[in-house]
Give the backbone structure.
Amino acid sequence: MRLRILDILEEKGKTKYWLYIQLGLSYQNFNKIVNNETKSIKFENLKAICDILECTPNDLFEEYHNK
Amino acid sequence: MRLRILDILEEKGKTKYWLYIQLGLSYQNFNKIVNNETKSIKFENLKAICDILECTPNDLFEEYHNK
DNA sequence: ACGTGATATAATGTATACATTAGTTAATGA
DNA sequence: TCATTAACTAATGTATACATTATATCACGT
């Protein structure tokens, strides 16, 4: 379940740093999420990422983003 | 981010127990997920639930299931 | 020269998902 | 009577998300 965060950031012309500031997570853990080095995610963070990137969970997940 | 697992099970005429057996998680942790007592979820379990219930993450999450 | 955007790594601690083991209760069918 | 479906609870341990603190590098604008 790869997260397409970097792809979506690129589509929107925004930087990782921008999302990091918006989210308010520590950079360490933010970086792991964005670089797909995590095996799970808190619902509140998934929701926050969707809110900020103006998308839905399906858009974020590699295997569902075209469904 | 409430999970609509029980709603989807009811729509499909399946029991909690059926999903529990399909998933292979411990009943303790399965029950917490289904009863929305967890704050996060492993991607592999989210994927497995979607596979078994033949749905997408958006269908599972209360605030995205009509999007 | 200095602040800030942008990106990254390392160490340590806490919260929590999930596993394991061990029970309980009740309905149903062989 | 006994196995199976169906549902639930408690105790203990491990894996991992996330926080905190501390670094570092490089570009860019003032």
Q: What stands out?
A: Chain A has a mean pLDDT of 96.
